[in-house]
Structures are given as C-alpha cells and as structure tokens.
Amino acid sequence: MATKNRKKKSEGGLNLKYLGGLLLKKMVKGGAKELRTNADEVNKLNVFPVPDGDTGDNMRMTIESGLTAIENIDSDDLAEIMKALSHGMLLGARGNSGVILSQFFAGTSKGLEASHTADPVVFGHALEMGVQQAYSSVVTPTEGTILTVAREAVEYANSRLTAKSTIRTFFADLVSEMQRSLDRTPEILAVLKEAGVVDSGGAGLFYIMDGFNRALNGKEEPDAAGTVKEAAAGKPAAPTSFAFDKDSVMTYGYCTEFLLQLQTAKTDIDRFDLDALKAFLGEHGDSIVAFTVDSIVKVHVHTFTPELVLGHCRKFGEFLTVKIENMSVQHTEGGIAEEAKQKALDSAQNTSKKPCGVVAVCNGTGIESLYADLGTDIIIRGGQTHNPSTNEFLEAFAAVNAEHIFVFPNNGNILMAAQQAAEMYKDATVHVLPTKSVGTGYVALSSADLVSGSSEENLTAMEEAMNRVTAGYISPAIRDTEMNGITIHTGDTIGIIEKEIVVSEANRRAAVLALADRMLAMPDKFMLTVFCGLDADEEERAELEEELKKEHSDAEIYFIDGGQEIYPYLVVCE
Question: In 3D, which of 471, 534, 474 has the Cα closest to residue 504?
Fold first, then answer.
C-alpha cells in the first residue's frame, strides 16, 4: 500500500520508517560510488580467462546514467526520483547485466509510482516487482546469475519484515543475504564453479546495494585519494587549448543535445507533436535526431542558435540533461563510424523514409569499411569491453530514417541493449538479428539485397546465412585454469568456438592453425575468413595464410585486415 502522507520525514534516526526521494538520491550516489570503486574487480570475474571482462564497467555506466538523470532534481518525492532514475538507467543501459539492472530498477519504479515515501513493506513489494521485471526481460532466465542474487535477497528481506522493521533493518537484511546468495552462485551454475569465480552481474548488484546501505547508515568511505571520485563516464577532461580563439569565426555551430522531461503543467503529453518539434529544429539547425521515450524527448541538433532551441523546448517541459559543444573544438573519434553517422544524418533530413536500413556494432577500420561497403547506414563503434548503450541504439535508429531497420549487435553482451532499444523505438519496425560476432554479421549482411529486396526477403536471407556460420576467436589467456578438459596456463593462446574453449597452445600461430583445422573439419564447411586485429603480426599472418591454403587446398580461405581490438584473430567458417 502506497504511503501518501507528505508530512512524514524521509530521514531520521535509527527508527527510520520511511524512505523518501532525497534519501534515495543519497543512496544512489553511494551505490554508484561503491561499484565505481570495485568495477575492475567485477570485470575480472570472467568465466573465460581472456582480457575482455566488462560487466563492472557496464553496470557502473548504467547506474551512473541514472544518477546523472536525478542529480539536478531537488525533490523529496520518492516516485519522482525513482522514475527519473529508472529512465536514466534504461537509456544508459550497457551489456546484458546493465540491461537486467535497468529492468530491475524499472520494475521497482512501477511499484513506487504512487508513493511519495515508502515504508519497508511498500519498498519490499516494489523490489519484488523489480525482480519480476528483471526475470521477464530475459528470454531464458538462468539461475546462478544476477537474477538469482536479486530474487533471493529480496525474498529474504521481505520474509524478515515485522511491525518493528525500519528502512535500515530492511537493507541490512537485503545486503547480508545478497552476499550469501552471491557466494552460492558457483554451486548453482557449473561454469562458474569450473572457472573458480562468482557471478559478475550478481557481484555488481551486491556492490550497488552495499553502497546504498552504507549511504543509508552514513558509512560512505572515501576513495584512495581521500575524496569521492566523480563518475568518469561522459565527463572528459577539460582541454588545455582550443582551436577557437578571439579571432575565430563561428563556422560549424554548436552540437546541442538534451533530454527534455515533458511536463503536464506545460503540455498535453499524450498529444505532444514530435513532428512539429522536428520542423522547428529544421528551421534552426540540421543533423536532427529527435524521438520520445514515454514522456521524455531526446534531441540532437547542430545549430548556431542553441538558446532559441532550448527556449522553445522549455515551453513543453524541463531539461534533465543538456550538452552544448562548439563543433570547432569538439573532439570526436572520427573515422568511418563517424563519417557514416554524419552521412546518414545529412541524408535523412529532407527525405522520406527508405524501405530498409542497417545499424551495426563493430570496431576496426577494416571491419568498419566492410560494413559500410555492404550498405550499413550507421556504424556504432563498439564491441567487447566497449558495449554501446540503449540510448546509442535509439539515436542510431532515428538517424537511419527507414521503415525497417536491421540491427547487427555482433556480440552476445550487446544483444539485450539492442533489443531493449528496439522495444522502446516506435518510429520504425526494428529487427535485431542475434549476431554474436562481426564475422557472423558480415556473412548475414552480405546475403541481403537492401536496394530491391523486401524486408521479409532480407530477413529470411540473413537468418538463413547466419545459420550456416560458425564463429571463433583467438585470445591470450590471463590466468591458469582448466576448462572443458583443457589445461590453460597464463600467457597461452586459446581458441574459442561460440562459447567453448577448444584449443590452448603456448604458441599463437599453432593455436590459430589448430582452431582453423577444427572449424574446417565440421560438416559442410569449406570457406574460412580470418579477420586480423591490431595485434596480428604481418609475418605471422603471411605464414598462417600460406600454411592454411596448403593444408586445406579444397577450401576457400581469406584473410582480411580487420583492425579490431582485444582479439588478434576472429575466424568465421561457413
């Protein structure tokens, strides 16, 4: 039952009975700080002994996106703070654990939507709704993961509720059981026990809730330097010099981005005219991306008059975030991904929607060039250790301006963010293909006819092509372990097919050859494509190509300069 007495204090002594918005905001800051401090430790809880762990960073950036959304809200209304927090996390969600985390908070927000404050019973029920939504966000929920840790902790804390319970006793029970549940995950999930680690997503959730509890009890600990570090994501260091000085002429305008929370006091939210806003933006700028997520409007525009844009938009609501950058001094990564995005933005401004568009996640100049040549409209630069957020997908969808959008996440840990964005986006039919490697996406996209083929024909062709592909990769081993009956030593090179380690060799060249041999020995496999990464050696590559073509003279073998990070070789067999 919701607590509606606005006179109740949300903060108090040991007998704190009600949680309000200001206290929750303090707790979120503590949770984000605690995970920030321990993100590297969570990253290292990797099942495979390879240097691609990123769960800690993904969950950190997800909670920090929520924190950014509530930083400037000065309200003690729990429902208001919780709604803004969950919106920020949904947009900023990265990686599968980050998406599940955002869904957990979204469900909790629904449970508190009528609560100005909440007692332990109301808050416990809201957390149950959070658990239910987190489970429903996963097609096939797996126990022994963040889902189990959340569920068992919430069940335990709720089972301990009495008439004497306070917010502090509730969180003490929640966090203590969360630690115990996390410790039990290897007993539930065999792959964790084999790897000798606990679940990384569960660990990230524990640190967040432990930080909540510390802040609740006034026990936040300073970072090593003695001060609380600011969130690193999205806050670049201040430049020491500018390309724009007192004699410069404003040539490019300002890149202006903001999140606008529509307000019922200012507009009829259900009848808000997004097309009219786009028309206004078109009169004052270009490179426009504008879309709505519930009652929040996301805008990107290049304009010489950001003050006019902001003034007009404030007629409809209040800003959650605002970023304005002089494009003469704006620092971007550049490259093919940025060129493709700008091209799509420019072409979309005054044209009707085209039938089919493509958004793909990849990194490496060679791979990006391949995808661009195959007709990709927007390349989101990312991959393992750099998972794009839900918001980045939403922006890409809006920039493509197509009736049907085909999305290639190209990584199993990016798939859920792409799917979440697809569910949120309403201006096109979005098809997320479950590609888990850039090689699989490359083969699938190669089979499409984006010019004359219908969306149904293209989807069928791409899905059939995906089913013919087996993907693998080569990586250095970062710890001693034994998996799948294979003994692995630190410094070895391991070969992985899908989710199984099949090769471990002291010599990298030998590992690549063994992986390729194994893949080409599969039934009906006769074509091998090897994408060479930044760490690939030219001499080694030439030797590999010569030996593979000699040993497999009946196969088609191609080596491509991919330029990808993390993995020296990505291998695709079809």
Answer: 474
Residue 117 DSSP label: B
DSSP 8-state code for residue 533:
-
Q: What is the DSSP letter of 407?
A: E
Confidence band, pLDDT 50/70/90 cuts, at residue 236: very low
N residues, the chain: 574
Q: Is the pLDDT of residue 371 over 90?
A: yes
Residue 285: phi and psi, rounded to 5, are -175, -170
The 8-class DSSP code of residue 386 comes to B
Domains of the chain: 21-216 (1.25.40.340), 254-326 (3.30.70), 335-467 (3.40.50.510), 470-573 (3.30.1180)
Among residues 156, 78, 147, which one has the least CA distance to residue 119?
Answer: 78
DSSP helix/strand/coil, 413:
coil
Flag whether pLDDT at 243 surpasses 70. Answer: no
Nearest alpha-carbon partner for 292 in 273, 267, 279, 308 = 273
Q: Which helix (H) or strand (E) holds 361?
A: strand 354-362
Write out pLDDT tens, residues 199-230.
999 999 999 999 999 999 998 655 443 333 33
What pLDDT was estimated at residue 241? 46
Q: Do 516 and 571 meet the contact criterion of CB atoms below 8 Å apart? A: yes
The count of other CB atoms within 10 Å of the CB of residue 276 is 9
Instruction: Assess contact for 297 and 290: CB atoms under 8 A.
Output: yes
pLDDT bucket at 105, cuts 50 / 70 / 90 = very high
Q: How far apart are the first and last CA of the chain?
A: 57
User: Beta-carbon neighbour count of residue 12 at 10 Å?
Assistant: 14
Please give the structure tokens belonging to residue 11.
Answer: 């903060």
In the three-class reduction of DSSP (H, G, I as helix; E, B as strand; rest coil), residue 475 is classed as strand
